[in-house]
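User: Okay, second chain of the day. Same drill as before: sequence in, structure tokens out.
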Amino acid sequence: MRFKFKLQEEGSPEIEIEKSFFGKVKVYYNEKEAERLNEKGKPFLIRMGDGKEKKIFVQDVYLDYVPKVIVDGKEINLARKLIWYEYLLGGIPLILISGGMIGALIGILGVYLNFMVMRARSFTAIKALYVAGITIFSFLLYLVIALTLQSLIGR
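Assistant: Same drill. Structure tokens below.
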């Protein structure tokens, strides 16, 4: 996922944060990759238009694809924060973690997709249908894979 933003001060370059599904983060400004420092929090260093340097801290948020970004002690919102019940409903596929590694992978992917749908700009009813569909599909996919593996193993 890619997130673009500008700081609310004069001379701010366009900053782009790229986060892979597996959590690797890169920061770009003025179409160049930002340097990552080896100090506490591993911030990225960007240069403003006036020559000043800013440290951007990018932190992972558990099971969410939108990272937490902190600049000068202030959090930058890259996307709408989910409400508690959106976390609850979107997290239902995590039940599959009890099904071992395959269940965990399918469950985490289902949660990831559910959170993406919940942040989309659409009618609530449509988002609810998508989330229900993703959740049901996650459970069915796990069931099909588990039964297929069970029949192949011969138990």
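The CA atoms of residues 16 and 28 lie 5 Å apart.

User: Thanks, on to the next one.
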